[in-house]
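Record type: monomer structure entry
Structure origin: computed from sequence
Chain ID: A
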Amino acid sequence: MGKKKKRAESEAEAEQENKVDIVNGDSHKKDKKKKHNVDKAALIPTVSVAVPGSIIHNAQSLELATRLAGQIARAMTIFRIDEVVIFDNKSESGSQPEANSDEDESGAAFLVRILRYLETPQYLRKALFPKHNSLRFVGMLPPLDAPHHLRKHEWGPFREGVTLKERSPNPAGTLVDVGLSKNVIVDQVLEPGTRVTVAMGANRNWMLPREEAGTYWGYKVRYASNITSVRNECPYKGGYDHSIGTSEHGQIINSSDLTIPTFRHLLIAFGGLAGLEESIEEDNNLKREEDESEEEYRKVFRFERAIVEEAFKSHAYLHY
């Protein structure tokens, strides 16, 4: 089990690192703009949502589990959530199989796979996702129609792409499939099968869709082995500065009483079938540590659906 857990975590990290942001034609300007982009990125607030893999245990079939995952993906896209963290409970931690294995997956592994699949533009899925039993029913889910899911006839300043094995006419470049009738060339040498974000047009300045153009560009999916790792492995500098825990067993509050303070990186954590308390109690790391970050998880509230929606909407307004 220990080897499987380490393999699952390394695969999750590799998949996250497999997506890079590049531009066609003016990569030499990156160093000059790097500091500006970092500073601007630090000013943009983000919202992360943590969901336990055990949330699908009530689903009576693979089809119903897939529908539930599709509803989660749609909600994350509608409310412009930046990061979705799927965490394991102690009871099933380490049961995540290999990325290409067709054996039954843990709830967390299943959700990670489906959420990443749905976030990926349709024209890239075949290249990035091998056939897998867990993907059997994804075809019945409606498309997310996220801003980065551009169709062939639609123009946009940015497009998602995947690097190809074919040799580029430019020895210092790489061919990229961006879902158009012709592939594009980027002036970097990258490994085949890497997902990239391309700024269309050779004379366009290097910029990221959200940081420079204010365009929501989908959510990132992260796997966490337990609820402690949700916070400790935060990808944002300085970590999450505000956390909200939700539970049916917590305090009931009205939507009018919900006040979200100014934040840089907000984390909203949901519990499984037995509530967020079970995830906290089963995490030995959380029990051993005695700092204020755990207390934020312990102060859980019972959120009605409208309250959670308000929290998401408040973040969505920040993007307009």
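Annotation 1: The longest strand covers residues 242-252.
Annotation 2: The chain is about 35% helix and 20% strand.
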